[in-house]
Model the fold of this input.
Amino acid sequence: MNGISPKAFESVTRLFHRVSGIKLGENKQALVSGRLQKLALESGERDVDAYVDRLVNGQAPQAEMTRVIDRLTTNETYFFREPQHFNDLKQRLLSHKSDQPLRVWSAASSSGEEAYSVAMLMADGLDQQPWEVWGTDLSTAMVDSARRGLYPLERARMVPPDYLRRFCLKGQGPHEGQLLVSKPLRGRTQFQAANLMQDLPNLPQFDVIFLRNVLIYFDNDAKAQIVRRVLQQLKPDGVLYTGHAESLTGLNLPVRTLTTAIHGHA
Done:
């Protein structure tokens, strides 16, 4: 089976950008080609360019485009990535006293490690106070994976040992080398699909929003749109965390930077 042609790569990445808002540059051609080859074979098509042609011309079912989005947005992550934000959140939890649930949103939650990291902190730091963790992702496959809460053990290398004992189950037999997030924690962490470039689903207002390692995939106009849309869900005194490799400078946004990669409403 041949790889994707430059013309087909341009066509499918243009379609992907229109649907998701994410731009894939030429440096992603090998990745796109490999993943689309597998999808083409799974759909019974041995010519990847012909498969792309069906997608671009609207001849493939909508479910096939969903599968393409799922495959092209899959990124491996791990628990407690970029620990500065979790340390900051832990300090904020110490001073939180309220009868209202403290709500945290992992807005680009991928396979759920970020949301469950937050849930571990909340369960540990809020005692009997109410709290909620929400996770959203563009990929329906990632949402399904997050709901299962089953991960390779190597993704838990940053999890404190005490949290591993309290909030995770070590896999045995066919699940050797894996961990399962405990049922009580999974029960308090909810996931749903959401495209940050489109109208958001019905979400509450949040005290804290994690919007990390997703803006790097967008141009400045799209970044500004996403952040403005997300800020509508942030309480007036809430906190927005962005990735350390991401900058909001020059986007003319109503935010003020509290410290590196930590923001509030202007």
Notes: The chain has ten helices and ten strands.
